[in-house]
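Here is the promised in-class demo. Please do not try to memorize the tokens; focus on the logic of going from shape to residues.
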């Protein structure tokens, strides 16, 4: 499955810098980055094998296009229950629980050297 979307990003950070020489310095930065993309759309495909009436295996290929979504399914087995969350763009509207949002927001700690030209 591949997809594309547009989103927003915001970085807020503070930095400490130590000059090591005229051109070389060491820096340590920390901050938070907010990055989200919603309404991801794309193509999907799968391949499966199916037996026809003569017991011959055929390769069946399906392809589709749509918005990425997520669904939660409850599976009951003899050992108990299992909740699974699945992401994709191949669900019917009755199976969908929510739109998929790609959220890469996180706290960051960066350290490194910088060289002035």
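The designed amino acids, position by position:
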């Amino acid at each position: 499955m591949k997809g594309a979307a547009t989103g927003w990003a915001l970085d807020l950070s503070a930095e400490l810098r130590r000059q090591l020489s005229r051109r070389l310095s060491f820096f340590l930065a920390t901050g938070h980055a907010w990055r989200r993309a919603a309404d991801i759309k794309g193509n999907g495909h799968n391949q499966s094998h199916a037996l026809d009436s003569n017991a011959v295996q055929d390769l069946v290929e399906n392809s589709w296009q749509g918005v990425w979504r997520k669904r939660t399914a409850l599976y009951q087995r003899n050992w108990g229950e299992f909740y699974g969350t699945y992401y994709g763009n191949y669900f019917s509207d009755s199976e969908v629980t929510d739109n998929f949002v790609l959220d890469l927001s996180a706290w960051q700690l960066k350290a490194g050297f910088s060289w002035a030209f």
